[in-house]
Amino acid sequence: MELLKNKVALITGSGGGIGEGVARYFVKQGASVVVSELNEGLGERVAEDLRALGGNAVFVKTDVSSKASIGNAIEAAAREFGGLDVLVNNAFAPTPNVLFEEKTDEMLEQTLGTTVWAAWWAMREAMPLMKKRGGGSIINFYSIDTEIGAWLHADYNTAKSAILGLTRSAASEWGRFNIRVNAIAPTAMGATFHKLAAERPGFAEMSASMRPLGRCGEPEDDIGPVVAFLASEMARFVTGEALHVDGGLHLPGYNSRPANVLPREY
């Protein structure tokens, strides 16, 4: 069964990691995919791989911190594939992992620009195309980090909290256009995971042990199906939802306090 047959999807940050995994699963479910990615080499490679899988895919270089660049990517979906049915807001540009008091205004501005503003612009650009096609599905990426107040991520936590508010606001208002808007909080073995695993012996095993399911997620096989479900007609009565896709990590949560930070400082 092809859940996304005849659907056109744009996935930001799909040049690697979770975004690439979602894109691969989407084409296997029959979707035509716009690979919206800043890195040209990565974006072209993914688009080529998707076509090798038998899918329809095109790469569009996209800087999600630029309203004009996002608009160009949305226009490409209409130009190349005739419209847009699914928008996945996955991309963001990370800042250094430092304590809140060391985070700068520029770091917050970068994070907001590549998450909140990026989703805001993309959603508003996508809405007319989805409305024209009788509806659509938007999936925004949220994070467990906001729920546990993850250390060293103050700007990221702030932005992802805003993403949840944006998701629910759009779900409330755009239901009248049959546009569904949901959020997922995924954890999987993406680029950041593999970097940490290479730098810290035992990280992968420790990460798996924290989850009730006892393993870490695969971008394509574990995250992709959930995003595809939300994008498909199977989820036609689901909107305004925030769904954890993390092997149960949200149940115990996790301690993110750096080892070198004292419990009490004056």
TrEMBL record:
Name of the protein this chain belongs to: Short-chain dehydrogenase
Record flagged with keyword tRNA processing: no
InterPro entries with a match to the protein in the record: NAD(P)-bd_dom_sf (IPR036291), Sc_DH/Rdtase_CS (IPR020904), SDR_fam (IPR002347)
PROSITE patterns: ADH_SHORT
Record has Oxidoreductase as a keyword: yes
Family membership: Belongs to the short-chain dehydrogenases/reductases (SDR) family.
Keywords for the protein's UniProt record, in alphabetical order: Oxidoreductase
Recorded superkingdom: Bacteria
Alphabetical list of CDD domains matching this protein: SDR_c
Molecular function, one GO term: oxidoreductase activity
Pfam families, A to Z: adh_short_C2 (PF13561)
